[in-house]
Amino acid sequence: MSAAARHATRPSPRPSPRGPAGRLVSGLVGALVSGLGLLVLVAALAVVAVAVVVPRLGGATPYTVLTGSMSPGMPPGTLVVVRPVDAATLRTGDVITYQLRSGEPDVVTHRVVAIGTDEEGGTLLRTRGDANADPDPGWVRPVQVVGERWYSVPWLGHVSTAFTAAQRESASRVVAGLCWPTPPGCCCGPASSAPGGAAPSRPLMHSRSRRRRSTMSLRVDRRTWRSPRLRAALGLGVVATLLVTSTQASWTDTVAVGGATITTGTLDLRVDGSDAVASFDDLSLAGLVPGSSTAAVLTLENSGTVPLAWTAASSGTDAPLLGGLVVDVTGATTVTGTGSARTCGGPSLAGVTGSLGGTLVGTKRQIAAGGSETVCVEVTLPLTAPVSLAGHSTDLTLTFTGTSDLS
């Protein structure tokens, strides 16, 4: 082939239509795109670090806040990272994530506002959302506590809340497949060779060189966005955000039902119309000898508003007579006999008689509110009393005790 023909097939390159100003603009655009790519790379890596790496290294779990009950500190879409905690170490003001029902996946993230204990001394927690007026209903037990807030990042969880759980899983797989780095030359490598494996002709090379110079800014843009590192970081960032679990931080509402009045009852046991009988001398008897007895009738009244049950006991001031005198209480309403032969008729309310200084009526007897019961008290010096009791004297006290416990 002649030199003229060869020259015809290889036309000399024309000067670039771009002058110094064009090259400057092209360089600025390239730098801007590269910087933007680097910024996206750093942001994606930061998302991965905050949502995956740091929680994994710290044994924590990331959640996304769904509602506004913890606003303004943790608005909807906040990524909150929760790490395990011993419920006994929690204090008022700590923010915790807990299960609504133990063993179930639904969780709430709220602040501890009160700490109590159960019957066995275990820790109980009362929680409330920062934006709620009232505490959450019921106490939170340690078995429900998932963990304590470690740190939170606003808005980072919005991507996760835009999808259902199934959609998040599917989207993660798709994004990971699309963004994972590809082998060199798969999508951003050099152009394929000419058909048949033949190298392109020189005129074609000159033509490609001219295109490369005229589209330099576009080539920089493609290289930046096709960078395997950038695509991997973006994939990890999106997948990490999609896989974050949600926490409700639920709203609460309280309905007050009023109008009911509860009044405690009164318990008022009186004897012969008085709360204290200091001058009851109907049982007094001088010159008591073996076989002698004295008796008196008392009326027990329930002046309160609730039923009561009563018991009775006796006491004295002389030790020998405590075991020597016999006291009995019956349901008689009158005294039989006179002087040192006064007695009470009817059976003993206790079933048996007892010595002075012991229980007179140990089995509870009930009196309705506003009701009364008459009893007869008899004191006897038995015929078998020893001579050693002669000349002794004792003050006798009867004690009647009322209670609202009717069992």
Q: Care to give the gist of this entry?
A:
The protein is α+β, with helices and mostly antiparallel strands and 407 residues long. 27% of the residues lie in helices and 25% in strands. The protein has helices spanning 3-9, 20-57, 158-161, 165-179, 202-214, 216-225, 228-242, 319-324, and strands at residues 61-65, 79-83, 95-99, 107-117, 123-128, 145-153, 245-247, 269-271, 293-302, 308-316, 326-330, 335-336, 343-344, 354-355, 359-367, 372-380, 396-403.
**Spatial ordering of strands, largest sheet:** 5-4-3-6-2-1-7
The overall pLDDT, averaged over residues, is: 75
| Name of the top-level CATH class of the largest domain | Mainly Beta
Q: How does the helix and strand content classify structurally?
A: alpha+beta
The N- and C-terminal alpha carbons lie at a distance of 128 Å
Supply the CATH superfamily name of the largest domain.
Umud Fragment, subunit A
Major sheet attributes: 7 strands, mixed
The tally of strands reads: 17
What sequence of helices (H) and strands (E) makes up the elements?
HHEEEEEEHHHHHEEEEHEEEEEEE
- The number of distinct structural domains comes to 2
Low-pLDDT stretches: 1-8, 182-222
Helical fraction equals 25-40%
Region (Disordered): 1-21, 192-217
Subcellular location: Membrane
GO molecular function: serine-type endopeptidase activity; signal peptidase activity
Biased composition (Low complexity): 192-204
